[in-house]
Design goal:
alpha/beta; Rossmann fold; Helicase, Ruva Protein, domain 3; 4 domains; 5-stranded parallel β-sheet; globular; Sigma_54_int_dom_CS; Sigma-54-dependent Fis family transcriptional regulator; nucleotide-binding; ATP binding; AAA+_ATPase
């Protein structure tokens, strides 16, 4: 007989689960407190435990730890309300197999979750995770951090909650958003992404919410925004921290009510879109600097996934490089010496920079070559140094040194007797432009004793442009 343990101080919920599970032929034991749990837990073993996170005399997380340590074969499901979803995510990190939200609106989903756990389909789940990761373009192998992150993303994907993805430029935030979409019940619906930092305020609002004919100059016809186009699917808001305060207010209203109006419209539109937002900046710091709304952050950051930079999972670098080679349909391998050099490099542009290096390497290789050796790699990787981007962002004190190093390294490339990918060079020039912009902003901010409005006026730029230069332009440009 399969033994199920339910730990919940709400007797109405307990009675419902008791009846629901006994109808499935399961043997159910009820604990309404931590004391009840201790008494029942000592008497026998259990195959599944459903645990409420809030109990009158103890924490559901403490009970979860107890079960995980003393009865690891017992599967666990944490029960939570919307306001305690973050606690449920902590429970997943502590070893819970899943979490469900109360009230139980979808009994079929609840039954399926219980059946899968009792059938011990953990191996199947791991197989699904790897398949979905490959479909999304995420390549990971030996990195425990990435594997744990994917497992967490897989468990929260079916839940109707918003997700915030943080990570440096080029770490693959959009790929993780795709993974969440494919692993969710919305996978048959549209997935639409939009970069909030790439559009002006007026254009961004039009892209998000749509506009009516004649709403502004050039609006020759009615147009639906991405909230309408996504429908019941997933909307990926990349670089959400770059949205203006006005746009943030409107985003907050959509998240709170599910309603919005087109630009120039008077009719209220409704949406059931799931939001996955991403940023390379620390939004908590942005809130402190009054550059981002705290209430909007609260709505977006129901669950946070932080993607590690490539330098923190060096063991995956050869695997990713070989995947990119296979994707290019080239019968070329990575030599051990080249792989070792690539693992020693810090990759400030992360996976996107690695992808660009592979493309460049394939371009300069001689026809008929089948092995990438160290001589095929860029100068900065061969020498173990950054080519045009220092690990630390240039400050006013080091700006002249940065310019000198940029010039010296560019001259090294100019003098090198090897083919050079012009697109890479132009990207490095853009890097210099970004660093110069940021350095001048910092210089003027020092002169104005931190007065951003005065600094923007002296530089003849908008406040949004100033924030953009500070928050993004100091980052590596490789994307």
């Amino acid at each position: 007989m399969t033994n199920i343990l339910i730990v919940d101080d709400d007797r109405e919920v307990g009675n419902f689960l008791n009846y629901f599970l006994k109808e499935k032929g399961l043997n159910v034991y009820m604990a309404y407190s931590g004391k009840d749990f201790c008494e029942l837990f000592e008497k026998q073993s259990y195959q599944l435990a459903l645990i409420d996170v809030k109990l009158p005399d103890t924490s559901g997380l403490d009970i979860l730890k107890n079960i995980t340590e003393k009865m690891p074969a017992c599967k666990t499901i944490v029960m939570t309300g919307y306001s305690t979803v973050k606690v449920a995510v902590d429970a997943i990190k502590l070893g819970a197999n899943d979490f469900i939200e109360k009230p139980f609106d979808d009994l079929d989903a609840l039954e399926m979750t219980i059946d899968q756990l009792l059938a011990n389909k953990v191996t199947t789940a791991e197989s699904d995770i790897q398949e979905l990761a490959r479909t999304s373009g995420i390549i990971t192998g030996k990195s425990d951090t990435m594997n744990r992150l994917l497992a967490l993303a897989y468990k929260i994907a079916p839940k109707n909650i918003n997700v915030l993805i943080e990570g440096e430029t080029g770490t693959g935030k959009e790929l993780f958003a795709n993974f969440l979409h494919y692993a969710s019940q919305r996978n048959g619906q549209p997935f639409i992404g939009i970069n909030c930092g790439a559009l002006s305020e007026s254009l961004l609002e039009s892209e998000l919410f749509g506009h009516e004919k004649g709403a502004f100059t050039g609006a020759s016809k009615e147009r639906r925004g991405v909230f309408e186009l996504a429908g019941k699917g997933t909307l990926f808001l990349d670089e959400v921290g770059e949205a203006s305060m006005s746009t943030q207010v409107k985003l907050l209203r959509v998240l709170e009510t599910g309603e919005f109006m087109r630009v120039g419209g008077e009719t209220v539109q409704k949406t059931n879109t799931r939001i996955v937002a991403a940023t390379h900046v620390d939004l908590t710091e942005a809130v402190k600097n009054r550059a981002f709304r705290e209430d909007l952050l609260y709505r977006l950051d129901v669950v946070k996934l932080v993607i590690p930079p490539l330098r923190e999972r060096r063991e995956d670098i050869p695997l990713i490089a070989n995947h990119l080679l296979n994707k290019a349909e080239e019968k070329i391998q990575l030599s051990e010496e080249a792989a070792e050099l690539m693992q020693q490099y810090d990759w400030p542009g992360n996976v996107r920079e690695l992808s660009n290096v592979i493309k460049r390497t394939l371009t300069i290789m001689d026809e008929g070559s089948s092995m990438i050796s160290p001589r095929h790699l860029p100068v900065n990787i061969r020498t173990g140094k950054l080519l045009l981007i220092e690990k630390a962002k240039p400050t006013e004190a080091t700006f002249e040194e940065y310019l000198k190093k940029w010039t010296d390294d560019m001259l090294d490339v100019w003098r090198a007797e090897e083919k050079v990918e012009m697109e890479m060079i132009l990207n490095k020039v853009k890097d210099l432009e970004r660093e110069i912009g940021r350095a001048f902003v910092l210089k003027v901010l020092k002169e104005t004793i931190g007065d951003r409005q005065d600094a923007a006026k002296r530089l003849n730029i908008s406040m949004r442009k100033l924030r953009y230069l500070l928050n993004e332009k100091g980052q590596p440009s490789v994307k």
